[in-house]
Structure formats: C-alpha cells, structure tokens
C-alpha cells in the first residue's frame, strides 16, 4: 500500500521528518518496506530553467527550423535550434539545457547534448508541455507570461515540491489502515496528536430535481447504501493538485469525476462509484442478485457470466456494476456526462471476496471491501466527494442524501482487564497509560472499574473484537521495542509421545536437502481429472475454478505440474520432495493421509568439465529411498515388484499387507496428462506408517568392534526370475550373527550364458563382535551359504 507523506500531514501537524515517521510506522505495526523521494511529474523538472528568446531567425538549411538565441539567466546566451511553429522573439519559455534529462509523456527519457542540427549548433531544447510531462499538447512550445522571471528553475516556477512515498506491507487484518486517514489515526495515537478531518459542513442540497429512488433487495450482502445526485457537472481534466496527489501514489488520472472518487478512496478508505444518471434506465437503482448465467460486460470490455451469488447494482432493466468490485462498460462517467448518481455503500466482506475471486477481478475497491470497510463513514465520504465535485466540476446537489441502513451495525463491546493485558504483553504498564492508549485509538470507555474497562470499539476496527485484540492494539502503540528481553527464561520438563513428528520430518527434510533435493509445496486443491479413484474424491462445494475442484488423492500429479513448470523454463535437473496430505472419502467419512513424495528427473549430476552428465535412473531413486528408510532405522521389511496403473515399473517395500513405500517410473499416461516429455521417477512413502514403525525402534549404544571384518565374494548363475533380495534373504537366514552385509557388485546377462540364466557377483561381509574370525570359521559359513543358495535358489557357484 502506497502512502504519501504530504497527504498524511493534511490530517495531522507534526515536525517529524519522513524518515522519523517511517521508523514510527514500522514500530507500531505498519511495516514500511521502502521510503523514496518522488515527484508528481517524472524527473521533477530537474535541470529545466525559464529563459527568454532574444532572437529568432530562419534556419539557413531547413524550412521548418528556427535558430534562436536564448537568455537563461547565466550571463551567457545560448543558441538553440527549434522546430516549433509558434516560437518567436521576446517569448518567455521553458528551456532544457545541456546535460538535462527530459521525461516526455510518451517514449523513453533522453539527455540533452550539445549537437549540430543541419549544420547549426544547438545547446539545448525549448520545450513543449508534453515533452516535460506538464500536459498533453504538442501544438508548440510553452509560452509563459511576460512577467515571468528569467533564470529561475522550472521546478520553482511551477511550484513543484518533492513528496515522500511509503510502501507499507499491510497485513490482511489491518483493513482500518488501508487509507491515509487510517495511517494518520495510528500516528496520531502514537504521537498523541489531534486528527484534522476534511470539513463537509458546506454540504447543502440545492434542489430535488434529480432524486433517484433506490431499492436494496439483499440487505445481508448490502447492509448500508448511501447515495446522492449531482446535476450540471462538467467532465474535464483534473486540476494539477489532484493529478499530482494521485500520480505520487501510482494512480493514473482519468477525469475530474473519476479522480475525485479515487482521491476519496485513498484518503478515507471508502470506495465510491459515480454513475451517469442519464444512463439509469427507468430512473431508479436496484441492489440485487441476478439470475445465474446473466451476461454482463465489465469496464474492461470483457463479457462475464454472472453467478446467482453476485451482488449487482442494477437499473430497472439490467445490471450496471458488480457491487464493490468493478463497474460496467456503459454505466460509468464519460466526457458527455452532465448528471451524476454517486454511490457510497457498505458491502459484506465475504460476498465481495467470493465475487472477486469468482471473476478473477482485483481492484482498489474490492481490496478494501474484502477486508472490511467502515459502515459509519459512507455518508461522510459521500458528502466529501460531492463537495469536491462541486468545486472541480461545477453543478449542484440535486437530491437529499439517500441512506438505506435498516440494521445499524453497533460498535463492538469488549471487556478488558488491566492484569490480563500486562500478563499477555509481559511488562507492567500503568493503568492510566493503558487507558490513554485505548482512548487515543478512538475506543470509547463505556464503564470503568479498578480492574479494567468496558469498551465500545469503533466499527472501522474490524479485527478488534476480543480482549486479546485490544491488548495487541495497546502493545502496538506502547511499542514492541519497549518490551525488554527477559534475562531469565523459565522452562519445565515435559513428556511427549515418541517419535516427535515434527522433529522426524525435519531430520528427513534436512537429509534430502543436504543431498541436493528441493522442497516443494503444492496446492491441496487440484483437478478432478487427476482422481484415480473418483468415488473417493473429496469435491469442493464452491470451487474457485474447474482446475481446483477436488482435494488431491495423491501427491504425484501436482508435483508433475511443478516438474513441467521447471522444464519449460530450462531447469532440466529435478530433485524434489514434498511432505503433504492426501484426501479421501471412504465409507462416507473423510480421511487425511500424510505422505512423503520424492521426484527425480533429468541428470543425476549437473554437467561439469571433467565428466559427462548421466541421466537419472530407477537406481538413483532407490538409493534415495534406501537412505530415507535407513535414516529412520527401519531394517525389517520385504520387497516385491510393483504392477499397477500408477507405475510404469517399480518396487514396493512392505510389512505384512501394508506398503511402506512404493517407487518407480511415472507412467506415460501421467506424463502426457502433465505435459512432461522427460522420464520422471518418484517414490510415494506412507509417512503415517513410517512414524508408527519407528515408534517401536529402540536405540542401543555399543562400542565399535575391536575385531576386523572379512569380505568374501561369490559368483553364481541363477534363473532370470531370481532377485538379489531373495539371495540376500537366504544368506541372512543361513547366518544371522556373523553376516553384517550382502551387496551385489556385478550382474551379467548375455548370449555367453545358458538360456534363461544370469550371473550375479555378491560380496559378503562377516564379523564377530567377540573374537577374530578364523579361516576355518569363515569357510564353514560360506559353505553353508553356498549349500542353501543351491537348494533354495538353484544357484550354480562359478569357480
């Protein structure tokens, strides 16, 4: 949110510098993200001076150019070649001297250099108003009054002053601060200064010749609707002061009527809308919801289909404006408008938010209505705008103020206790100081006791409804920096169930991150087309779009969207992981399942000068899966090949009938759905089951063995359908105590082997924790292993 320093000082008088106010705003909860010096006109007219044309003659080599001599007040005249048709001797003009950067209305800024134009030296430029951002005319140069002083800066002549712009990171709960008045209120509370409000006492109805009846059919979505009519206005360009105010905060001026509504919006935080009263078919206004599918063309020229939940401002025949969000194409103010119907309303925040999201429209008005505006300011803002319109566009107020407010919104009743406030803040603040802060924030003290206060909180503070909210307000104004950090921290021992879910997740996340994986967070809302089991899909009752209409049943498809996003931006090496939940409707009950997903694609290692990149394979994924399983201390599990629609091929680690993790290659169908052309591998962990398994793990501390380990290798022929896991299981069943590990270091399948056979080369590590193994003991174990491999797996040991 952008706030102007000069605008703020219209509400309160202070000697604080912009920098000092920046620190104060941050300290009271309105964090200033940036503070910069700005000019209402680009470049601030820097380097431009007022000069006088001493002589003006025809250019000898160009019919449309003149060679002029200009006095710029330095004591030495300069020569300027000018192409303007209206340049003449004796004129007072605006001159851009050599070295000045000029900022035109259109095109890029450019620097004035000494040059030759058709053979004649030119040492500057005599400016037209559009060339320096002072207007739109390009008919000729600006000619100033004869009495204008030569040599003064254009900045001084046009009374152009620098302003300071605060960029405030407004949190969603601070709707009350979404205006210059709102920010000024907080500053006034901190500095204990009075607020000066714009005077609307001059508001007066001249006649009732343009009374327009209003009907509100949905008072829940529109609790208050205020309006007034103004006739005989002239729509034209806004005066400089108003344009400058809007330009500083980044608002483009349009015309005096629209600019006034924008001005009041950013001044008071109350959105307004001006309708062309002559375009109100039937001469009346109806606030209602239209039938589903009604076509409506908004101000941007887009035709939209209305929902039956969209609140609309309508005339007798058709909708004119989406309430609180966006105007219609034909209802706004144009150059031919002479009569205005001015609206100032309070709309329900939830209704506006849903409509805004439904149509993908974000405006300054919807930004404020979604967070909650002040229902008590509608009439005041209406009068403020009406007076400005009279001042800048003429006309007269031709109706009384219509104010439909059937159920006034009362101030919030809040009880606060001094001790509770001090306990929550953590410092002892005197009761009188607490009361002073509360009253400086415009909270009315309805009753007071020695223990606390009964408060009436103003309606514009939509987030202050409880004692803790008032405490936060007190703390903001008292100052977070005034709360000392305690020198002593009290703590107590507590017992928690094992394992610690968060800590365990952090351990695995840290391990994956250390190995080059990046954590992703995908939306839990996704496309219904992604549901593999449609009958278990959890549908959203009011989806934001058709692409976000169900809760995800798996983590893969949203992650594949992230893969596609990165691949399309030339990030080809993918190593992702995500902790998330899946959602299912099973036997009419909603079920959430925590999962861990690992995704691999591209190269296993980035390209380097001393080696070629190699593509990731299934075994790179298996190494990551084994690392996770091993880091959690899980050793007792079985594995089998996966054959289902979710994997092109893969493995499953399981215990009993429960799968711990399933991993493998993404199917071609899923890749096509996500528009991913490269091979992708993924692992899907049942995180809840993993936590349940490691709950039973026992930590055993033991010394590192003093006795050496021994390695023995075996090469064997086995049938093609025999797996390494089967051979490993046979070995451990043969000797549980001495065998520490079994690894495969070579696999060969080729035409030099008997048909249906493959060659495995395994290494076995043996170690005794109590003594050094002898060759006799080792040979005895290896013979048992050879015998069992031959009997169980029909392995033929190769000599």
What features would you describe in this structure?
With 799 residues, this protein is α+β, with helices and mostly antiparallel strands. It contains 19 helices and 42 strands. Strands 29-33-34-38-37-36-35 form a seven-stranded mixed sheet, with helices on both faces. Strands 3, 4, 5, 6, 11 and 12 form a six-stranded antiparallel sheet that branches. Strands 14-17-20-21-22 form a five-stranded mixed sheet. A hairpin with a 3-residue loop joins strand 21 (319-322) and strand 22 (326-327). Helix 5 (240-248) crosses helix 6 (256-268), helix 10 crosses helix 12 and helix 18 packs across helix 19 (775-793). The model has no long low-confidence stretch (mean pLDDT 92).
Core attributes:
alpha+beta, elongated, 7-stranded mixed beta sheet, single chain, 799 residues
Structural class: alpha+beta
How would you sum up the major sheet?
7 strands, mixed
Q: Distance N terminus to C terminus?
A: 80 Å
The counted number of beta strands is 42
**Average pLDDT reading:** 92
Helix content: 25-40%
Backbone shape: elongated
Percentage beta strand:
25-35%
Question: What is the strand arrangement across the widest sheet?
Answer: 29-33-34-38-37-36-35
Q: Output the radius of gyration.
A: 38 Å
Contiguous low-pLDDT stretches (5 residues minimum) are none
How many DSSP helices? 19
């Amino acid at each position: 949110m952008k706030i102007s320093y000069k605008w703020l000082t219209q509400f309160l008088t202070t000697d604080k510098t912009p920098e000092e106010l920046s620190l104060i705003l941050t300290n009271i909860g309105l964090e200033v993200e940036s503070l910069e010096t700005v000019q209402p006109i680009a470049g601030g007219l820097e380097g431009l001076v007022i000069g006088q044309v001493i002589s003006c003659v025809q250019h000898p080599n160009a019919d449309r150019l003149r060679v002029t001599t200009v006095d710029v007040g330095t004591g030495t005249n300069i020569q300027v070649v000018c192409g303007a048709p209206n340049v003449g001797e004796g004129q007072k003009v605006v001159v851009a001297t050599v070295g000045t950067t000029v900022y035109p209305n259109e095109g890029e800024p450019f620097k004035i250099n000494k040059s030759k134009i058709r053979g004649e030296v030119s040492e500057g430029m005599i400016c037209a108003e559009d060339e320096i951002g002072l207007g739109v005319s390009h008919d000729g140069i600006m000619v100033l009054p004869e009495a204008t002083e030569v040599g003064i800066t254009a900045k001084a002549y046009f009374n152009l002053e620098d302003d300071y712009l605060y960029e405030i990171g407004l949190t969603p709960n601070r709707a009350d601060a979404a205006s210059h008045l709102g920010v000024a209120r907080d500053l006034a509370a901190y500095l204990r200064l009075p607020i000066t409000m714009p005077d609307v006492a001059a508001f007066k109805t001249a006649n009732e010749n343009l009374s327009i009846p209003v009907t509100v059919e949905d008072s829940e979505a529109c609790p208050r609707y205020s309006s007034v009519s103004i006739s005989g206005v002239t729509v034209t360009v806004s005066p400089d002061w108003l344009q400058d105010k809007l330009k500083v905060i980044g608002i483009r001026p349009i015309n005096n009527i629209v600019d006034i509504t924008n001005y009041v919006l950013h001044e008071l935080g109350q959105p307004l809308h001006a309708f062309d009263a002559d375009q109100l078919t039937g001469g009346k206004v109806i606030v209602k919801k239209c039938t589903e599918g009604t076509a409506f063309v908004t101000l941007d020229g887009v035709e939209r289909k209305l929902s039956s939940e969209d609140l609309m401002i309508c005339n007798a025949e058709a909708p004119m404006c989406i309430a609180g969000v966006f105007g219609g194409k034909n209802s706004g103010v144009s150059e031919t408008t002479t009569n205005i119907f001015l609206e100032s309303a309070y709309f329900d925040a939830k209704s506006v938010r849903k409509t805004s999201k439904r149509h993908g429209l974000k405006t300054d008005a919807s930004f404020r209505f979604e967070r909650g505006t002040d229902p008590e300011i509608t009439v005041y803002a209406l009068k403020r705008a009406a007076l400005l319109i009279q001042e800048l566009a003429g006309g007269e107020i031709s109706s009384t103020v219509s104010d439909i407010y059937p159920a006034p919104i009362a101030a919030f009743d809040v009880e606060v206790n001094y001790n509770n406030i001090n306990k929550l803040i953590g410092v002892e603040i005197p009761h009188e100081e607490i009361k002073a802060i509360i009253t400086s924030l415009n909270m009315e003290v309805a009753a007071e006791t020695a223990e606390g206060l009964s408060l009436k909180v103003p309606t514009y503070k939509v987030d202050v409804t409880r004692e803790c909210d008032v405490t936060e307000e007190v703390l903001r104004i008292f100052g977070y920096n005034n709360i000392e950090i305690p020198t002593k921290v009290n703590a107590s021992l507590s017992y928690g169930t094992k394992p610690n879910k968060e800590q365990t997740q952090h351990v695995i996340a840290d391990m994956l991150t250390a190995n080059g994986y990046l954590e992703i967070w995908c939306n839990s809302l996704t496309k219904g087309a992604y549901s593999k089991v449609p009958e278990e899909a959890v549908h959203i009752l009011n989806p934001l779009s058709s692409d976000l209409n169900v809760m995800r049943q798996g983590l893969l498809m949203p992650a594949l969207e992230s893969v596609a996003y990165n691949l399309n931006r030339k990030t080809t090496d993918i190593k992702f992981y995500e902790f998330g939940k899946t959602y299912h409707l099973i036997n009419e009950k909603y079920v959430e399942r925590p999962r861990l997903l690992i995704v691999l694609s591209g190269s296993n290692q980035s390209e380097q000068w001393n080696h070629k990149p190699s593509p990731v394979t299934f075994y790179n994924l298996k190494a990551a899966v084994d690392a996770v399983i091993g880091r959690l201390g899980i050793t007792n599990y079985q594995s089998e090949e996966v054959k289902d629609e979710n994997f092109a091929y893969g493995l499953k680690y399981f215990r009993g009938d429960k799968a711990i993790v399933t991993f493998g290659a993404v199917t071609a169908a899923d890749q096509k759905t996500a528009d991913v052309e490269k091979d992708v591998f993924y692992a899907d962990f049942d995180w809840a089951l993993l936590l349940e398994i490691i709950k039973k793990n026992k930590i055993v501390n033991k010394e590192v063995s003093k006795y050496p380990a021994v390695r023995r290798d075996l090469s064997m022929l086995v049938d093609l359908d025999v797996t390494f896991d089967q051979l490993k299981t046979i070995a451990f069943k043969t000797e549980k105590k001495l065998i520490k590990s079994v690894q495969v270091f070579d696999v060969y399948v080729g035409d030099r082997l008997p048909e249906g056979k493959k060659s495995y080369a395994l290494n076995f590590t043996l170690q005794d924790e109590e003594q050094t193994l002898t060759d006799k003991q080792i040979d005895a174990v290896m013979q048992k292993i050879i015998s069992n491999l031959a009997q169980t797996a029909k392995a033929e040991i190769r000599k």
